[in-house]
Amino acid sequence: MNRLFVHNPWFRLFGPLFSGTLVYLLLLLINDSVLSINEDFLSQELFVCIALAYLSQEFLRLSLLIFGRFDLENRPFLRVVLQLMVSLILTVVLVTGAVYLYFSKVLFYEPNFRELLIFNSIFSFITLLYVVLYFGHYFLYRRNTSKIKREELALNEVDHAFNHYVKGINPSLLFESLEAMLVEMKSNPDRAEELSDRFSEVYRYMLSKRKQEVVTINEEMTVAKHLIRLFNHLPYRKVELENLVKSGFQVLPTTILVLIQNIVRSTIVSEKQKLSIKFDEVGEMLTISYKPEEKLQLSFNQYSIKDLSKSYSYYTEKPISIHMDGTMRIIALPKLNLDERSNN
Fold this sequence. Notes:
With 344 residues, this protein is an alpha+beta fold. It has nine helices and seven strands; from the N terminus they run H-H-H-H-H-H-E-H-E-E-H-E-E-H-E-E.
């Protein structure tokens, strides 16, 4: 779309042939010499007009490329006026010089004012048409680009909202919790009731925070403790949480819950060993560290949190990083400090 047709090699080759021929016919019509076409159509004047058309078109194309390098996006009216004036002045100077050179060197006399006026009027009109076509394409391209950007933003918002919706439902945790409650209800009703309380706390938080942009880390960590107790009822490795976070920065809702779930689900199940997850602050980052013992068919990597990373990219330029430090895997999460929040 941004490739204007005037830069096409075929247009550059054949365009001046037609425009130059049209100029020649107009000159004959103005000079009342149309009948001379039957005698000698391929006259010297025809080739002169075509050559002038080639020369003016290439200079105009060069001016488009030069003006395209200037940053006048915020002042389109200034660009239209300036480019139109420069193009017309350039055309008049170029045509006047070429016609004067042809008349004096080939025809051996100087052109009069009327002849220069005719040549300059015709080629100035062609220049005006050329520039108008360019700006028509230019503004149409800007308008279409703006529409495409708005559509992309709308699509990203829908995608972002859908990801929040999916995270809020979390079908894997839902079915695992319900299955565990069904088993516990037969053998230990009190334990089943405790499991139900943890489950309701976690899901109430997930569903209530879906429309909120950010939450404080303290809110997230409170629900994370309920999630860990819930996981300790499920057939996964028992989890210990070490929380060294002291400041009150913000995170996206369910961020910590998503990370804990990915860590727990990717760790080999063991009744003897526990999984210790440590939360700490390092500058503008929240670090989550643990000793990985991953399942053979399921690992925790950047792809595992691609949706979370995409959500964070709307709010900060700092990415979520995952790296190893000795035997410890460290997840670095950027802190958020937004003034405005969405309503629940």
